[in-house]
Amino acid sequence: MYHYSNFDHKFVAERVAQFRAQVARRLDGSLSEDEFKPLRLMNGLYLQLHAYMLRVAIPYGTLNSRQMRQLAMIAERWDKGYGHFTTRQNIQFNWPKLEDVPDILQALADVEMHAIQTSGNTIRNVTADHFAGAAADEIADPRPIAELIRQWSTDHPEFNFCRANSRLPSQAAPMTAPSLRRMTLVCA
Amino acid sequence: MVKKTPVTPISKVVTANDLKSGEVIYLRFPHSWTPDLTKASVITDRDLAKASLVFAQGQANVVVGAYLSDVIKDADGPKASHFREKFRSTGPSNYRHGKQEI
Questions:
Q1: Quick one: which of B54, B35, B57, B38 has its CA closest to B46?
Q2: What pTM, to 2 d.p., does this model score?
């Protein structure tokens, strides 16, 4: 399983600190909602019909037990005790409070996770076969390639302003028609 | 004699999301917000509706996305007249969470 390099740790820590300052500026009125909205979306935070929603990145759907426990802690401490896994293999918390989100992002960073690039018209995740590493008919483990794609596509300027949101699926076993169709879903 | 154009009566509330919690809230005169639609102030005057919306939009550090919403007056207080607003006033419909927990 991939572990953060020093660069990764520094990058994510800086984004947490940056967003903490942006939230403070929104709450004290220095930033309007129009100014704040693109900043929160870049950090996976939506304001939906009933409440805020924070979408957390789970690259190629791979979690270790420490990360899973941290997600559970976040759900218990800052949400309503649950989250929703998405079709792109991320997870969403549906009831966070705005002022708590910087602390949530810090808790994610503590276990090498983040919510960067999980919203907006960009590549929101690289998905992988959920049987990766376990499928009997696996040709190759997709996770190393998925990790390379994740690194290449994260904050890639060409994909920050796509015309539609996207996912990049990778597949371990022989591809079926639906998976081939999904492979063509890249932003124009 | 000049024929007067009939004025269609209005029945509206000001609604928005709370900046800190994101919760759906409603304006209650004179200057407070409530998460309970039945406790919202119903506006029947067009000028007052405009002024109330301007007031709400001026509270940018308290609320997000204020707008006027149609309601039906009822003995128990205002009720949403559109499905979307009913949905906002009660919370998610899959099971009892959000406002339905209160």
A1: B54
A2: 0.86
